[in-house]
Amino acid sequence: MKFHAPQKLKTIADLIGARFVGPENFEVLGTNEIHRVKPGDIVFVNHPKYYDKALYSAATIILIDKEVDCPEGKALLVSDDPFRDFNKINTHFTRISNFTEELHDVEIGEGTKIHPSAVIGSHVTIGKNTLIFPNVVIGDRTVIGDNVIIQSNTVLGGDAFYYRKLNGNFDRLISVGNVVIENNVEIGNGCTIDRGVTDSTVIGEGSVLDNQIQVGHDTIIGKKCLIASQVGIAGCCIIGNEVTLWGQAGIASGNSIADGSVILGKTGVNRNLEKGTYIGMFAEDFKTYLKKEVKLRNLK
User: Fold this and answer.
1) Are 175 and 168 in contact (CB under 8 A)?
2) Residue 300 above 80 pLDDT?
3) Are the CB atoms for 188 and 210 separated by under 8 Å?
4) What is the pLDDT of residues 125-164, one digit of tens each?
5) 104 is catalytic
6) 277, CA 20 to 30 Å: which among 28, 93, 182, 243?
């Protein structure tokens, strides 16, 4: 999530009541989740196990629960609860309406047709010659390109499934990102595509999604992908261009699949995959799997 204008380190520290390490005028451009951070971003970390990952990530401001040695060229925000304060920063700079306010700042391109039963949030942009079917829900800040088809009962821009357990209850990391649907995408009935926590969940140009598909927060799906029904893709995944995912495949959080790969039905992806065809609970190479099956069947 990028701020509308650059901020200073001291300004952010004062906002959340944190101590800071670094020049008070150190430039802060926005916030981001660890998988998507860029220079100028704030990233939060609240467990020693992940300190180094955050400190040596691309982020240049680390919101942390303990003062540690600060890498050169970076700054710290020292907080007793980085999770809470990350939410506070994000909601201070992002307007959260969740369909509770009068519709505003919606742009709809020429030739686009939207069924009257569709529900559209604020700060939404829809391109030209796009079709929105009945009962579609389009959340705040969603961007939809030209020549897109979104079929009935699909939800774009639901909150990310991102929680911590606090005092026996689940505490949500508030989603201030969005969903971006590029040109010439088709999305079937009953799909759910969550917005990014602080960045964009992206469906690449020319991709086609079947019915009842779940795409998690901050996931990027490449161009001209084909995704069959009941596929589940967790958050922060990178699906390359021209990837095929067959029915009921599941991809665990933070994994990537190389361009041109084929993931067969019911396959589970629990690691990064190079280009290939995969099958099985732990995404086994398909040719290897077939050879193994032949050997097993020939056992006497």
Assistant:
1) no
2) no
3) yes
4) 999 999 999 999 999 999 999 999 999 999 999 999 999 9
5) no
6) 182
How long a stretch of residues is the chain?
300
Residue-wise burial string across 222-237, b where 16 or more C-beta atoms lie within 10 A, e elsewhere: bbbbebbbbbbbbbbb
What is the sign, positive or negative, of the torsion defined by CA atoms of 66, 70, 71, 75?
positive
The domains located in the chain, with CATH, are 2-93 (3.40.1390.10), 107-288 (2.160.10.10)
- Token pair for 135: 């009962």
Catalytic residue among 104, 115, 123, 217, which? 217
* CA atoms of 174 and 271, how far apart (whole Å): 27
Distance CA 266, CA 250 (A): 7
Question: Which ranges constitute the DSSP H helices of the chain?
Answer: 9-16, 51-55, 82-93, 286-298
Cα distance between residue 46 and residue 63, in whole Å: 8
Contact (Cβ atoms closer than 8 angstroms) between residue 180 and residue 201:
yes
Do the Cβ atoms of 130 and 112 come closer than 8 Å? Answer: yes
